[in-house]
Input
Amino acid sequence: MTTTGSTAIGSTAAASTAAPASVPAPVPAATARELGLAHYAARGVLEYVLARHGATFAQQIALRAAINADAPQTPDELVAQVQGSLKADPAGIRAVLDELLAKELLVADGEHLRPTEAGRELFAAVAAETAPISARVWGGIPAEDLAAAGRVLALVTARADAELAALTA
Output
């Protein structure tokens, strides 16, 4: 065995500080912080893709609401839908709708707003770019884990929505 100073190279003393490869890292408990970190990690990916298309996260959420609606929505209806998702100020959401109108991703049709072909194309392009990333992020997670996470997230969302409603009543 070779020595340098007082430490022996090849000894197990230096290696004993590392965790054995067969011991899995501890899994953090599901907390508000862990939920937030997961949200912002995924949102960061989406925002990176959106930025390449000159769009923002809020614009994507508003555009999705318009595209996925069963019928054309009034501005007030879209504001309510987006507010339900983002918990944002209605005036800020109206500004986002104005941005989408200015970019010709939404168009006024009487009292309703509807997505334009350009809006649908942007939405489809972002979906196509993020799909393989989402597959890598979510791939390999057992269905029962996803179901349990879905149940927990639905419960947390309902409770937080109730708390927000009480705070703003």
In short: The mean pLDDT is 89.
